[in-house]
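Milestone 3.1: sequence recovery, worked example.
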């Protein structure tokens, strides 16, 4: 399944905040397609909000990407905010693998 959902909302007048909306298949199979888009946005904007909802697949590669984006933003003195809304099933799997603390720190 390669059902990745990506949408970007341009900053509103007087704002420097760009919003990214992600959903669908956020797995190792689709992140290679997504990464260049997010890196380009990170390069062009100083404030980024990443909203994650309606996710069908979410794996360790997804967590690694989010942590990497956070570290890159810190390194380049940019602001990044995550709003993550995952299903109870996916959150349960993340908790069972021990990565819930990592996700909550974002």
């Amino acid at each position: 399944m390669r059902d990745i959902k990506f949408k970007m909302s341009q900053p509103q007048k007087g704002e420097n905040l760009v919003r990214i909306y992600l959903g669908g298949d956020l797995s190792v199979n689709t992140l290679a397609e997504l990464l260049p888009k997010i890196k380009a946005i990170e390069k062009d904007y100083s404030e980024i909000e990443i909203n994650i909802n309606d996710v069908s697949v979410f794996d360790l590669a997804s967590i690694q990407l989010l942590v990497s984006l956070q570290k890159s933003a810190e390194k380049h003195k940019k602001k990044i905010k995550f709003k993550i809304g995952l299903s109870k099933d996916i959150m349960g799997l993340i908790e069972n693998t021990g990565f819930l603390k990592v996700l909550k720190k974002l």
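The beta strands are 4-9, 17-26, 47-58, 79-84. Helices lie at 28-44, 60-75, 88-97, 100-105.
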